[in-house]
Amino acid sequence: MKKFLNLVLVFVMSLALVGMGINAVQAAATEDVTITLHIHQYDGDYTNSGTGIWDGVTWNNWGDLVTSEDDFGGVIVKTYTADEINAVGDSMEFKPTKDVNADDSVNYLAPGNGQVFLDVTPLKNGDVTSLEIFFVEGASDFVPAAEGFGQIFFVYADPTVAANATVYDVWNMWTWNNGTLGSADGVDFSLDLLENTGNYDVAMKLGVFNVAVDADQDSGFIVRTEDWAKQCGSDIMIDNTSVRGSGAMVYYYQAESCLLETDGPAFLADIDAKFEMNAGNRFLETNMITSPTTIEVELLMPQNPGAYDISRFTLKDSDGIEIPLASAEASTMAMFGEFESDTVCARNENKFILYVSSTLDHSLLGVVGSLQGWNPSEAVMSTKDDANGMAVFEVCTDQLAGEYKVLFDPDGDGFTWDGNVDPNVTADNQSFNFDGERVGYFYVDANVPTVSNDFVGSFESDFTPLEGERTLIIHFETEEARDMISVVGAFVQGWAPDAATPYISTKDDTSGYAVFEVPTMEATGEFKILFDEDDNGFNWGDTELTQQFAYDFGEENTLEIFINAAGDTIYIVGGTAVSTSLKTTKVTLTVADGYMLNPGTDFFVDYKQLSIENYVKVFVDVDVDRSLIGLVGSVQNWDINNPIMANQNSTSGYAVFEFAITESAGEFKILFDSDGNGLNWGDFEVTPGDNVTFEVGESKKLVLFIEPTPTIDGGEFVSDFVATPDVVGADVFFSEYLEGTSNNKAIEIYNPTVADIVLDGYVINYYNNGSETVTKSYDLAGITLASGDVYVICTDTYSGDAVCDEIQSYGDEDSVIFFNGDDA
To answer: Mind listing the pLDDT tens digit for each residue in 73-82?
Structure first.
């Protein structure tokens, strides 16, 4: 036993000695160290910004504030002595905040509880004496400075993350022109961000490019997938001058955009609105199989039926196999039948579709509103009914929201605002809103049309209902004596026309219509009006002045109606016929023929919200057949087999192309199908050279005017025209110079080409010895120099062998002789 204890003691002592050896060689800081923290806030206001710091020893009590600002944001410098830094923990906890005066999670710049941790071991062990770090609002970590490089930060947001949490998974950044060793090619996003945009905490990404000191071009930027699907159709270029080798800058970037933004609050507000729009369209994992061919889907937020286009739905089974779909029907559309549309809207217009259920003559109904300038004389008429007999109105408009009314023209002479002549089917203005969709569906139940209170006159009541009774007030347009007409129906007297006290009219309204006030205990019923033409009391068989009408008080105790003179139409005075919202969260998907849904199998539905679109019009002035030119570009995925065609000519004669895109920029070419066999790459280009590029601004609309020179083959021909050279002397040259005694001089001009040359534009200048001033000029215009021939210009004392053809005297010894012939 004693021996065993000695062995244990030796072992323990050995461990102690080893430990002492490690402590003896451990590195430590020997001088002051600094931590420089750069903070970026979206609002750019660093008035009270700072950070809390817990270093494992002390809490700074929010004492470290932003003391300066740079292109990145606010700057905080924290200094420790060597002893202080050696005493702290290896990891420090920071809490960046917008307001050091309020320890409130609302002001924390980091998500969650606002904590961000920094490894300070390089400072503690003496490897470095300073750390420079960058923090972007919404991040949960720091980005270290890159020594020898400047940095470009990108906050990347895709609002559709509200509907699909995986939208960021396939994307990364691509870049070029960042200098030697700077970032190049694919760059992964550095950090996840979670930023409150106003109403929502939106997941985002943070990316960083390093820019070397030797960068001498703008940095290229694009977000794309590995298979080159781009968020923007064209490359984005960034002026990196201020961050070559050092410094930092921040940009905001949205999915499907071609714009780098710098306005933080505007960026967040835009993302907040789009996030909300997508929040109701999450990837759905629900759904009740209601038959072997249908599945019922419920979204989180109601949509106008125009949103439920079949192309926006994807149905997959649990293995990820897509099931083809035949239709998507909103639950609120079940009561409406199919109809054949006869209205085509322009690309920049939305289509307003209104169903009206009414017993009135549909050909006498019209829609008036902001849709068409509130002009009743130009009311939009119904041109068809749906399969269930409802009147259908189709109106094209560039409005996103507005108001309308439905009017009735009983005399068929056109609509007016006179409610006594053309009643309002909807008493009040009805609102519509497309909610970002291209098509909006709306419905009005107007089986009993309603009119405004001034449609009929007022009257003084002489009737007091008993407890529990409702009062039916009837205005009847008639010429008959009031004591000769009576209302008979399901009232207190119970369809008894010969009652001792019939319900006759006892007064007129101010418009001269007979007024009945009739008591009833029931909320619903029917009635008609009889005429005691034989003056022997009211009996069945008397003349019926009206058809039998139904009424419904609903929750009201008084119902006021008007009946026209023909006795075939009833209006509710001051009634409430209104447009019914067809928004719903429920959609029924029907699978394609040949496919079945098996109960017990998991099915997943993906619904994609319509992106906000940009509208582009291209006006092209070109003298070719407009039906044979087509536009091909990034706007339609460069699909040469499906070009965008010019759908019309403008009044000024331009061919007009129109298209809607979700991207804000792009490029295209316009081609000419001269042989009429369809467009192909290699066809003549109406826009030769580089692709036409464009960028849509904040207005979401862009108009381009193109007046190109088409590269069209005009055919072959043999030219018989010799043009005057653009540069005199380009073809002929002095082939010989002769100088004898005295003025025995000559100059020879030679034509080496295969064609005759007219010497128009050629001039011989004469200079005295050593002078740069022209003394005389001899114009050779009108002289033709044949191919291979020469012209010799000589003084009149020339003694050569040539024979002169023409002599022109310029006086004295400067006279010259022009002649042609062989080489002299």
So the answer is: 999 999 999 9
C-alpha to C-alpha distance for 307 and 304, rounded to whole angstroms: 6
Residue 556: which pLDDT band, with cuts at 50, 70 and 90?
confident
Quick check: 391 and 358 in contact, CB under 8 A?
A: yes
User: What is the number of alpha carbons within 13 Å of residue 422 lying toward its C-beta?
Assistant: 21
- Cβ burial of 82 (10 Å; 0-12, 13-18, 19+) is middle
Cα atoms found within 13 Å of the Cα of residue 156, Cβ hemisphere only: 26
Cβ neighbours of residue 541 closer than 8 Å, sequence gap 6 or more: none
CB 351 within 8 A of CB 438: yes
Q: Which residue, chain included where needed, has tokens 């992964």?
A: 188
Is the distance from CB of 823 to CB of 736 less than 8 angstroms? yes
Q: What is the pTM of this model?
A: 0.45
Distance CA 378, CA 392 (A): 17
Region 488-500 average pLDDT = 83
Three-class DSSP category at 385: strand
> What is the rounded distance in angstroms from the CA atom of residue 542 to the CA atom of residue 382?
39
State how far the alpha carbon of 127 is from the alpha carbons of 121, 318, 353, in Å: 9, 54, 72
Other CB atoms within 10 Å distance of the CB of residue 478: 20
Is 284's pLDDT higher than 60? no
**CA atoms of 573 and 419, how far apart (whole Å):** 11
Tokens of 697: 């601004």
Largest CA distance in the chain: 154
> Which 3 state secondary structure label does DSSP give 236?
strand
SS3 253: strand
- All residues at 6 or more sequence positions from 297 whose CB lies less than 8 Å from its CB, including other chains: 284, 286, 287, 313, 586, 587, 588, 589, 605, 607
518 pLDDT band, cuts 50/70/90, is very high
Residues of the chain by 3-state class (helix, strand, coil), percent to 5:
10, 40, 50
- The residue assigned the tokens 């008894």 is 496
Q: How far apart, in Å, are the Cα atoms of 711 and each of 622, 686, 817?
A: 11, 6, 50
Looking at 213-330, which runs of residues are DSSP E strands? 219-224, 236-238, 248-254, 260-261, 288-291, 294-303, 313-317, 322-323, 325-330
Distances (CA, A) of 252 to 266, 271, 528, 590: 10, 11, 71, 41
| Long-range contacts, 711-719 (Cβ 8 Å, 24+) | 711/684, 711/685, 712/624, 712/672, 712/674, 712/684, 713/674, 713/684
> Token pair for residue 415?
């609509």
| Beta-strand pair 629-633/644-645 | antiparallel
- pLDDT exceeds cutoff 70 at 197: yes
Structure confidence at residue 578 (pLDDT): 67
Return the number of other C-beta atoms located less than 10 Å from residue 659's C-beta. 18
What average pLDDT score do residues 40-60 get? 95
DSSP 3-state assignment of 167? coil
Confidence band (pLDDT; 50, 70, 90) for 451?
low
d(CA 153, CA 510): 76
